[in-house]
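Thread: Newbie trying to understand structure tokens

Hi all, I'm a second-year student working on a class project, and my supervisor (Dr. K.) asked me to get a predicted structure for one chain before our next meeting. I've only ever worked with sequences, so writing a 3D structure as a token string is new to me. If someone could post the tokens and maybe explain what I'm looking at, I'd be very grateful. Here's the chain:
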Amino acid sequence: MSVGGLTYPKAIDVAAAAAELVTDLMVRPWGTVSPSVYETGRLVSLAPWLVGHAERVRFLVDCQRPDGSWGGPEGYSLVPTLSATEALLCALTRGEPDDEKLATAAGRGLDYLLGWPPQGTASMFPDMPAIELIVPALVELVNAHLDTLAERDVPRLAGRPRLRLPAGMNDRVLAAVRSRVGSGAELPQKLMHALEVAGAAAHGAPGVQPTSIGTVGASPAATAAWLGGRALPDHGTAARRHLEAVARRYGGPVPVGLPITVFERGWVLSWLARAGIPFDVPPEMLADLRAAIQPVGTPAGAGLPPDADTTSVALYALALLGMPFEPGSLWAFRTDTHFCTWQGEEGASVSVNAHVLDALGEYAKVRPEAAGRYRPDMDAIGAWLCERQQPEGWWDDRWHASPYYATVSCALALDAFGGAGCAPSVRRAVRWVLETQRADGSWGRWGGTREETAYAMQLLLLTGEDELVAEAAARGYDYLLRAGEADDPPLWHDKDLYLPAAVVRAAILAALHLAQSSGLVVDRHRQV
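---
Reply by user tm_fold:
Sure, no problem. This is what the structure looks like when written as tokens:
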């Protein structure tokens, strides 16, 4: 449509898009997650017998960056580049076809790793799950392949120097983990998600049992490591059937974690409901969400440990949708100072605590008689979050690469349930968002993205009311319409960066709806 000589894209029917999205959650109950370089590389090495092997190798070769790396910017390249390089070296040692192409890609990966971190930049390890185990395990495997290829005098790879562990890392914890896995002792559930680091000890480890759907740790790599790669596993095993189902769904490559059923549904429903989008929720979805909350909390999906993040977001979604459930299960994650993601967590997450505040606050809102019971914890969380805000007004977090995710999580929770004392923190967050909008109307850490723009717009539209907020939100809305159905980069933290597509789609729809219903969107959009 052309208005005043300018062309504007057609506005989105948010309610219809939300209905379609919720319906799709039922059609794909395991979740929708982007394929992972790290996880795909592990299957190339661990499960060459699995359907889609050639497609996995091709995926790795095709998505290598011009500088020889794989993965995201900065330190986010280390783990996926190690995994892809090791996988291609492993394929070469097995004598797989297209060895020249594989050798070239592997050689470029080695060159990047030998020069890591790039000159002029500091060594930076993102706060990713199991990175302290994954990096030593992969460095060991890469060096073993280099020894084998040197003996064979393979062109392009013979004589390559061995990799060293990055400064600040060692293999002591990895050795302890392998010893425990090999002993047959019961393992912490969170370790199951990265069982592949245990190497040969993971094969049929007696302390490991796949879930009823066949996954180990909700991870294709961990499942393949438990099955072992020396002999073709029995076609009838649940673990093999699960791996085949995941590989076929993605055409070979695999995601870093699946299933993510409760995580995906909790986030999608809460984004949509908080924004006030009218939509119907299948009653069985709400029943499943409520049934998932046990006294010890709920995991993001089968094979993962219960965590405070998934538990609190599920509770928040239920309360928003008229099915409040007493949040006592969150006490399993309460420490003397904050709420941990799970017991034994090293470090702490501001977004997890913000979501706990949401869950407690929304329950107290719909059950006023319970407000006195939860107010002390809500006040404590609010103070803890305010103390961790950066001077410029933003927060960062261990579960997402973007400060916009952490900031929208904290600012909205504080605004709704933190009390009057938290208002200055919310105002600083709004100011930071206003100051960091890009020239094209977007927001983003490395570049403008739909996801980060949606978070910034939600923060502004749900907490701010002045003309600067209105102008910035309208520019963000224009950007989202121009971007259309663009590919969204993976920004969420797991062993590799990943994109939970339905969750991000819900966040974008929430931002669009808030803009459309706020009166900030100019007539040209409403007339389309």
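A couple of things are worth pointing out once you decode it. The CA atoms of residues 35 and 254 lie 5 Å apart. Residues 1-8, 523-528 have pLDDT under 50 and may be disordered. Feel free to ask follow-ups in this thread.
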